[in-house]
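Internal ticket #5521
Category: modeling
Description: The requester needs a full-assembly model to guide mutagenesis choices. All entity lines are attached below as received. Residue total reported by intake: 774.
Assigned to: D.W.
Attached entities:
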Amino acid sequence: MTAFKKNRTVFFLYLAEIRYNLPAMLMYMVIFMSICVAISRSRTETMQEMFEKTAVPVAVIDRDESELSKGLIAFLGQENKVISSDGEENELTRQLYYREIGYVLTIPEGFGASFADALTGEAKEEMSLEVVKLPDHAAGYYLDADIEQFLSRVKAYLAAGDGLEEALDQTLALREHQAEVRIAEGAYAYDNMPRFTYTFNYYPYLYLSVLTYCVGFVLKTFREKKLADRLNASPIPAATRNLHGIAAFSVVFFVFWLLSLLIPLVTDGTSFYTSPHRGLYLINTVAFLLVAASIAFFIGHVAKNEIAITALTNVVGLGMCFLGGVFVPLDVLSENVQKFSRFLPSYWYVRVCNMLGMRQGDLTAADFGLFRESMLFQCVFAAALLMLTLYIVKKRSENV
Amino acid sequence: MQSLKYRYLQVVRDRGNMFWGLFYPMILATFFFIAFGDLGKDSWKEIPVALVAEEVQEPAAMFVSFLETMDGELITVTNMTEEEALAALSGETVEGIFFADGGDGAPALTVGKSGLRETMLSMLLDAYVKNAAMYRDIALSHPERLQDALSVMQEDVSHIREVTLGGKTYDHVLEYFFASIAMMCFFGCFTGQKLGEEAAANVSRQAARRSISPEKKSLAVLGDLTVGISIQFASALLFLLFLQYGLRISLGGNFLGMALICLLGSMVGVSLGMVVGSAKIKEGFKTAILVALPLFLCFLAGLMFGEMKVLIERSFPLLNRVNPAALISDALYFLNVYNDPAGFRLRLFLLFVFAAVMTIWAFVSLRRTRYDSI
C-alpha cells in the first residue's frame, strides 16, 4: 500500500490512457447496454412460450369438412386461436417464420370416414392428420398430445354406442373437468419472475463484452514495444505496475457497474429498487463483475491485436453466455451441456438470478446454500484467472 | 499484377488476422452447435415424482393403479408420506407430488416450479381426470359397453403424422448459424481496415511510401479491394464448408446461391473496413466502430437472440431491409428454407446495392487523393 502511494505515476499513466480511450469505451457501453435492454424486453414475452402450455395460433387446413373435422377445430378453438387456411405453402411458411402461427394442422379429405371405418374394422389403414410445428417450442408437442387424446375419447364414446354428434359434444364437454394443480408455497415459477430479473440475466454478456473491449484496447497500447521497453526499464517492479493498472481499471469498472444498475430502471421502472432481494442481486453482479474483470485482463494480456481481442471477446462472451443459460434458458439445453455448464461462472450467476426472481417470499436455507456456492465459485474463478494472468505477465517481463 | 501478388502475400502473411478471421467464426459456430445440437431432439428422461396415498379408498385407489402403470414409462414413482414428499420437492429430488386423494377423492398435483417437465405432469393428471369423467359418463349411459370403450382407449394408435412444408425445416436454430455467416462476412472489416490504413498516406507511413510510387492510385485501390474481398470470400466459403461438412448442419442445397450472398457480404465487410481504416479518426475509436457496428448489426439479425429479427419484422420491418447483416441472414433463409424467389431476389438486390455503394465509397475515398504535406 505504501509502495502504491509512493509510485502513483503508473496509476496515472493508466488513467490517462483510459481517458484517451474514453469515447470508444462509452460507445461500447452504450451499444452493449442497448443490446441488454433490447433482449431483456423481448425475452420476457417469449420465455413462457418455450415451456408452458400457452394458447397457440393454429392454422387449420380442413380438406375433409366433415362433422369430425369441425368438432376437432372446435376443440382446438377452446384453448387456442384457430386460423382457417387454404394451405398455400409460401404463405404458411411466411407465417411460421414470423411466428404468426405456431402450428399447422392439415385434415386430409376422407379423414372422418377413415376414422369411423377404423372403429368398425372396415378401414385397412387409418388416415393420419398432418401437422407442422416449431421445433424449439414445446407448445406444439402439447397440442399433439391434446389432439391424440381428443380423438381417442371421441372413439371411446363411439365404441360405447353414442352417435358422432353426441360423442363430439360429450368430448368437448370434458373441458370442464380440470386437474387440480397447485404450485408449492415459495415455488420457483417463471410466471412469477419480474421483468428486471430477465434484465439481470443478460449482465454477464454486458460485463464480459464491455470490460474485455475496454481493457483489451487500453492494454494494447502498453504492449507497444517502445513503451513496454521503457516500462520494463523502470525501477517499478512488474507486479506493482500491474497492481496500478488493476487499480486504475477498477475506477472505470466501478463507474460502469453503477451505470449498469440504471438499466432495470429502463426495463422495469423502479420495481428492482424496492424489491426485497435487491441486495443479493447486487452482490451477484459484483461477483460476476470480478469474473468479467479477470477474463478481461487475461484476454487483454494474451491477445496481440485488435482482431484477436475481438475474436476472443466474442468467443468467450457469446460462448460462455450461450452455454451458461444467459441467452437460452438452461432447461432447454441438453443434459450433457448442462453438466459442462456447471464449470462456467455464467451458469452460477444465472442460477442465482433465476432463484431470486422466482422466489417471491423469504429465501430458504437451500436458496442461501445455492447463493453461497455460486459466490464462492465466481470468486474462486476470478481469483484463479487473475493469478494466472499475473503469472503470465511476470514471466513475459522476465523474458524481455 | 506483381503489385497484386505482393498485396496478397502481405495480407495472407499476417497470420494473426488470417487465423482469427477464419477460426473465430468456426469456434463460435461450434459453440452454437454444442448449445443447440440436441434442441428439439427426443432426449426424454423419466420424471421422478412422489405419490402420497395413505389409506386411500375408491376412487382414489384407481388413480394409484393408473400411476403404477405409468411408472417406468413417463415417470418414476416413489411412495412417500406428505412430509417426506414436500421435503423431497423442496430438495429437488422429485419434480412433483401426486396426491391420490387431493380432496373429495379427486387426485391433485403439487409442483415446485413451472417448466417443461412440470407441464407434462399436469397434462398427465389432466388426461386422467378427463378420462375418469368420460368413463363415469359411459358407465351411466351405456354400462354394457364400458369394456369396449376401455379397449379403444388402450389401443396404441397414432392419429398424427409430422410433416414439413415442402420438405423444409423451420428450425430457428438456423437463425444463429445464418447470423454467424453474416458475422463472418463482416469480420472482413479488419482486413479492410488494414488495407485502408495502408492506402491512406495521411494515416500510415507505409501508405505514404506507396503514394509516391509511380503506380496509378486508382489501380492500387482497386487491387486492394480485390485482395481484401477475395480473401474474405475464400474464408467465408471455407466457413460454409465447415458448417455443412464439419458440423453437418443442413443449411440447404444451393451452395452457389450461398456463395453469391457471401461474396456480397464480404464486399460490404471489407469496404466498410477500408472506409473506416482510411478515415483520419482516432485509432481507438476507429477500432471501436469496426468492433461495435458489425456486432450490433448482427445482434439485430439474431446472433445473440434468434428471434430478434422476427420481432423487428413484426414491429419495424424497414430496419431489416437496411441492415446488411439481416439481409445476409434473410437471403440465406429465403434461399434455403423459404421457397420464395421474389423475396430472395429483393434481399439479394438490396445487399448488392449496399455492397456496391460501400465498395464505390471505399474506392472513391482513396483514389486520386493528393496531399500538399503529411
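Resolution: model delivered.
Comment from assignee: Chain A has a mean pLDDT of 85.
Ticket closed.
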